[in-house]
Amino acid sequence: MIDTQRAADAVSPLDRIRQAYQPRLPRGLSGSIRLHLDPEPLVSDYPAQILEEFPNSLNKPVVRFVQGEGGLTTEAITVGVVFSGGQAPGGHNVIAGLLDALKSANPESRLIGFLDGPIGIVKDNWIELTPELVQAYRNTGGFDMIGSGRDKIEKAADLAACKKTLESHNARGLVVIGGDDSNTNAAVMAEYFLQQKSSVQVIGAPKTIDGDLKNDLIDASFGFDTAAKVYSELAGSICRDSASARKYYHFIRLMGRAASHVTLEVALQIHPNLTIISEEAEAAQWTLEQVVDQIVDVVVRRSAAGKNYGVIVIPEGLLEFLADVKVMISELSDILAADESHIKTLKRRTDRVDYFNQKMSPAAAATYAFLPDSIQLTLLKRDKHGNIPLSQVETEELLMGLVSQKLKALKSEGKYSGSFSPLGHFFGYEGRCVQPSNFDADYCYALGYTGAQLIRGGVTGYTISAQNLAAPVEDWQMGGVPVTSMLVIEQRKGKPKPVIKKTLVDLQRGPFRYFASHRGDWVEKDAFLYPGPIQYFGPSDVCDARTKTLELEAED
Amino acid sequence: MIDTQRAADAVSPLDRIRQAYQPRLPRGLSGSIRLHLDPEPLVSDYPAQILEEFPNSLNKPVVRFVQGEGGLTTEAITVGVVFSGGQAPGGHNVIAGLLDALKSANPESRLIGFLDGPIGIVKDNWIELTPELVQAYRNTGGFDMIGSGRDKIEKAADLAACKKTLESHNARGLVVIGGDDSNTNAAVMAEYFLQQKSSVQVIGAPKTIDGDLKNDLIDASFGFDTAAKVYSELAGSICRDSASARKYYHFIRLMGRAASHVTLEVALQIHPNLTIISEEAEAAQWTLEQVVDQIVDVVVRRSAAGKNYGVIVIPEGLLEFLADVKVMISELSDILAADESHIKTLKRRTDRVDYFNQKMSPAAAATYAFLPDSIQLTLLKRDKHGNIPLSQVETEELLMGLVSQKLKALKSEGKYSGSFSPLGHFFGYEGRCVQPSNFDADYCYALGYTGAQLIRGGVTGYTISAQNLAAPVEDWQMGGVPVTSMLVIEQRKGKPKPVIKKTLVDLQRGPFRYFASHRGDWVEKDAFLYPGPIQYFGPSDVCDARTKTLELEAED
User: Fold this and answer.
1) Are B301 and B360 spatial neighbours (Cβ–Cβ below 8 Å)?
2) Which of A120, A222, A316, B224 qualifies as a cystine partner to B211, CB 3.0-4.6 A?
3) pLDDT for res A363
4) Sign of CA dihedral B328, B331, B334, B339
């Protein structure tokens, strides 16, 4: 059971005061509003598999909310809400916005929250989200009001169970607060309900701190702003520590297994001496050794300038984007599948290297031989899905070791005379449940508010859309985008599957271009910036600043 | 060289606005003030070694500043300042307060900053700290204005070099911003200058985020407030993540090799399910296995309540306080000294355990055998001082492994049926260079301001004192305490040495008593609090809150 009730004095001073913050609303959601449907559907040419799997969800138009009247029910309705996947700051405000919009349209409307993620719908495990309960969670971090979970509703039995649960509550709709896969799952449920002639509507809210659920109609996913600001605080403080102590190299790994948006945003905020962006590494087909050489070059240049300290920032998913690592993992995977029992006997480094020299292509064998002992061993294990656990490698530690080796070699050749004391950091959990920034507090509230209007407007299979987010809140354009219009077919666990394509860092857009044209100035000079802790009160410059990513994308 | 000049636009929005913040001043430092000397010296009964080493620095009275006139020079003077040791938030404000007080007494007075720590005095490496330069660093974090270093001025040649440097600048005094050892070193310099009939005065400012430089006359060291708040933000966010995801145990290790003040303060701020305090562990003579059993007990009880998640907080220095670990390290040290080359051949766990079973006492051998493989190996290495590198052990990882083992055993006995997924974190560098809290900004400014007045008042060999810090700034009582009155004799590297005794957590005082009487409520219930990021603007409840440690000590 979730501890849903907290004594009024059992909250921090910040949480107590933030409970009273009333998020601002975009003009299109204030006063009398109506649903505006675009005259044409967004997409007309769907992949065959999507035509087949989503026959009732196709050819829908983008919808927007504008001031006016009509088209939104004022009946008392019941709506369900659920968190799906990892935490992101602001989730509770999506629920607060949803509740306020429902109650404002009809005070008899009800909101119910399914517990511990989508499995809560299957199991009909829920609580009533009353205004009193929700009050204690306004503008707070975390998903603890109702918990979250990673289950997907895909099997026929689970879909049927969800239909049964939602119909038993006489629910008009369900809002799924989740990332790309969860929004796809919302579309699967919406399609199923349409096929089953159920009237339950399903709407998704775009959540992910990784920032990779965005497109022409969704400027940003919620949580990215706050999480990137926390990581910028921490990484910035470490830059200042580095410039004060003047004796350590800090290697900071940041969240983002697929996209490097978080790493890029932090780089734009703090100006590290070197930042590696996975998407650039992939486009340029960098090898692991080339990445190491770039770092070594920075260390050597700074050392020549009398600076044996600095900060290097890398994204969590870097290794998976490196050309030679990809080849090596693919070959290793085949060899392991064929010969795992023998390989397990190779305890000595030299035995392993000799063996893979025979079995692998020369390039892949060289990459393997380049790795330190402990990582060679890690890569010979397989996870429960049979995959090589590349994600378990602490990339910052790997790079620290490899850079150290290269520097020793340079020193013995007389090409480098500095000292190199590296320290590793990884930031992830620190930023997922903090109190949302003013931006995310407002944005999430607007998302929830919009979710309620989409349900009142009778649409289903939509993700809540949000445009013009770099502008003041009043000017945000909220609406809905059909999930089917965002789907592509990708291989997942060996099968083609409709998914929302993750939006990676675009090397042609403003954020990366700005980074690429300025990073040269950050190498030898200490051009560090120290953003400091997120501020909720005080000057707007400090409290309401958008991410550099959003600002620079808006200027494109 | 230090990059001393930063373009006005090369600062973060927060730093730009904070540069304009004018710290509040205690009444005793505002307007016309005078130096008040206590009628009697604080200490009359010194240890023999202190009598011998500090003949000119004894029997001095505590001094205080009160409103009034007289006794403070208005001559134009030159003062030097230096950072010594690790970074702590607020250091730049000590310098700002020092400069403002000097310039306010006589606009011709000058402040010079020695670079990269005390070695900068020896080498006469310095910059002029002009109002323009200092302006860019007001209320910022870090020590990067002039850098810091860990050198101590103890050798005769270094002392003579410092005297030469300071006299060549015609310096009236030197302010050393540092921790316990650095303040001791300030007293050594003060005594040397007195012996050499030099008029240079030396004053120390109490700095350390560990919070262990405090006594009846110094309520708190600077930096503790801010650093503890950053760690509380991070650890609190992790508590919320734990309560949201409901599937991980987070083990959080916090700074504090000797004292557990930081860990205790964070526990009081966030209410983790279990917190271990080194001082209690030592007083109760807990063994490593007893600590593990306490954690296991919490995990089992929470699992029975349906909660397979939680947060455990431990101090960095815990292992050194555990009864059995101390014995084992002592025996291991002797055995290694006698037989290191043979021990290095013991690659297999069973060989090592057999060997130490023969050589160690049964208790110590059992402790060694209890440790996982990797840590057994770490403890067989020795650091450059010949010590066993206990501090290199990642205590949270050690505990995670040992708890996991015990839970497996309990599961096989049918006494536990939960899941246990532990994740480790260590927070240190994140909190040392962040922008100082309002408290530390004000406090550091008052420390610097007081330092200038102590020099104007002609005293030397003092640490700046500060009382009544739990009260509003206006009511703080600033002054100076003779360093010699705080010295005790302790063994350092095998020799008796005068040192300022670190103030550990007192199990009889308010902070620990409050913790001890409430922690039972935090085990099974999720009583987590989420303090959130440090706030500089907005409601006083949020922005000016003292640490729980300071509040509860004030109530004693």
Assistant:
1) no
2) B224
3) 93
4) negative
CB B36 within 8 A of CB B64: yes
Q: Which two tokens stand for residue B113?
A: 């900053």
- Mean pLDDT, to the nearest integer, of B33-46? 90
Contacts of B339 (CB under 8 A, 6+ apart): B359
Q: What is the pLDDT of residue A1?
A: 40
A540 interaction partners in chain B (CB closer than 8 Å): none
Interface list for B 77-106 with A (CB within 8 A): 83, 86-87
The string of pLDDT tens digits covering residues A484-528 is 999 999 988 789 999 999 999 999 999 999 999 999 999 999 999
* Average pLDDT, rounded, for chain A: 95
Q: Look up the ipTM and state it.
A: 0.96
> Which runs of E-coded beta strand occur in A8-125?
33-41, 61-67, 78-84, 110-114
What chain B holds in terms of domains, given with CATH numbers, is 6-223+436-492 (3.40.50.450), 231-431+509-555 (3.40.50.460)
Helix (H, G, I), strand (E, B) or coil at B67: strand
| CA distances from residue B552 to B146, B222, B266, B469, B513 in whole angstroms, order as listed | 36, 18, 14, 12, 9
Interface test with A, best of B239, B307, B530, B547 (most A CBs within 10 A): B530
Cα torsion A178, A180, A185, A188: sign? positive
Model pLDDT, residue B9: 56
Token pair of B503 as six digits: 């103030």
Strands of A223-284, DSSP E: 249-254, 274-275
Report chain B's terminal Cα–Cα distance, integer Å.
48
Among all residues of B, which ones are annotated catalytic?
210
Q: CA distances (Å), B270 to each of A11, A13, A133, B452, B548, in order? A: 10, 12, 21, 38, 11
If 0-12 CB within 10 Å is exposed, 13-18 middle and 19+ buried, where does residue A491 land?
exposed
Q: Which whole number is the average pLDDT over B101-115? A: 98
Which residue reads 């378990």 in tokens? Answer: A392
CA distances from A185 to A44, A57, A63, A538, B62 (A): 21, 13, 20, 40, 71
pLDDT of residue A318 exceeding 50, the answer is yes
What local confidence, expressed as pLDDT, does residue A2 receive? 47
Q: Does B425 touch chain A (CB under 8 A)?
A: yes
CA-based Rg of chain A, rounded to a whole angstrom? 25
Identify the closest residue of chain A to B538 by CA–CA distance: A537
Give the pLDDT band (50/70/90) at residue B215: very high
Question: Quick one: tokens of B489?
Answer: 């004799």
Q: pTM of this prediction?
A: 0.96
Q: Give the dihedral of Cα atoms B395, B396, B398, B399; nearest 10 deg.
A: 120
* B501-515: b (≥16 Cβ within 10 Å) or e: ebbbbebeebbbebb
**Cα-Cα end-to-end distance for chain A:** 48
Cα B385 to Cα A82, B185, B381, B493, distances in angstroms: 57, 21, 11, 9
* pLDDT of res. A312: 98
SS (H, E, C) B252-317: EEECCCCCCHHHHHHHHHHCCCEECCHHHHHHCCCCHHHHHHHHHHHHHHHHHCCCCCEEEEEECC
Q: What does the alpha-carbon distance between residue A390 and residue A382 come to, in Å, rounded to a whole number?
A: 9
What is the least distance, in Å, from the CA of A430 to any CA of chain B?
5
Q: Inform me whether the pLDDT recorded for A231 exceeds 90.
A: yes
Q: Give the closest-approach CA distance of A438 to chain B in angstroms.
A: 13
Complete edge-to-edge strand list for the sheet that includes strand B477-482? B33-41, B61-67, B477-482, B462-467, B201-206, B171-178, B78-83, B110-114, B126-128
- By C-alpha distance, which of B194, B225, B178 is closest to B60? B194
> Please, are residues B122 and B152 in contact by the beta-carbon 8 Å criterion?
no
By the 8 A CB rule, do B252 and B314 touch?
Answer: yes
- Burial of B160 per CB tally in 10 Å (0-12, 13-18, 19+): middle
Provide the token pair at B447: 């420390």
Q: Which residues of A touch B141 (CB under 8 A)?
A: 237, 240, 530, 532
